[in-house]
Amino acid sequence: MNTPASTPAFDDPRTTWDARFAQPGLLFGDKPNAFLQREAQRIAPGSRVLSVADGEGRNAIFLAEQGHAVTAFDISPVAVDKARKWAAQRGVQVDFHVAAADAWTWTPAAFDAVAAIFVQFADPDLRRQLFGGIWQTLKPGGLLLIQGYTPKQLDYRTGGPGKLEHLYTESLLRELLPQAHWLLLREHEAELAEGHAHAGRSALIDAVARKP
C-alpha cells in the first residue's frame, strides 16, 4: 500500500488508511496486481500463502481462487471488513486479520510463499524488521514475491509514498535478504492501472526470492 507524501499516513497510518479505504469503490481496483498474477504460477499448488498489508483483499482473494490456503493482514479494519465481504461474495475463504506489520506474529516456517506488493510504508528500521519477519515465516524452499517502487517514482508521482527512504532498489533488496536465491530481480518502467491510487507511468522493481 502507498500514499502520497502530502498525507499524514506515516504519523497516523491506521486513521489515514481507514479514511482512504472508506471511500466508495475499491482504492486499488478489483483486479490482482499484474506482477503477482504473472508470477504466482511459481507457487506450488495448494500452498500456504501470506499476503502482507493486503488492503481490500484483491491479492489475497486472487491467490485463494488459485487454490492456495491464504492468510492476509492489513492495518486498516475498514479495508479488512471490505475484504471479508468481497471474499464471501466471490465464494472463497481467506484468513483475514487486522494487524500492523510491527504487531504481526511472524511464526517461523509457517508459509510456503509470501506476497509483499507495494509494502512501502516502512521506514528503514521498520523495513528491516518487516523483511526479517517475512524471511523467518517462510519455510525453507519458500518463495517471496515483491513488487515496489524505485526512487525514479519520485519523478512520476503516480503512486507511492513520496519518500525516498521508503523506496526499493536492487541493492537494497539484496542487502535486506543476503541469503536469498534471486529468481527474478529487475528495475523497469511500466504503465499501472490499479484503481485510482496506482495509475500511470511508474518506476518499478519486480523480485522473486527463494529461501534456501
Structure explained in plain terms:
The protein is α/β, with parallel strands linked by helices and 212 residues long. It has one domain (13-210): Rossmann fold. The chain is 29% helix and 29% strand. The protein has seven helices and seven strands, in the order ααβαβαββαβααββ. The protein has helices spanning 13-21, 34-39, 58-65, 77-90, 124-137, 153-156, 170-176, and strands at residues 48-51, 69-74, 94-98, 111-117, 138-149, 181-194, 198-210. Strands 3-2-1-4-5-7-6 form a seven-stranded mixed sheet. The chain starts with 12 loop residues before the first helix and ends with a strand. Residues 1-8 have low confidence and may be disordered.
Brief characterization of the structure:
With 212 residues, the chain is α/β, with parallel strands linked by helices. The protein has helices at 13-21, 34-39, 58-65, 77-90, 124-137, 153-156, 170-176; strands at residues 48-51, 69-74, 94-98, 111-117, 138-149, 181-194, 198-210. The protein has a 7-stranded mixed sheet.
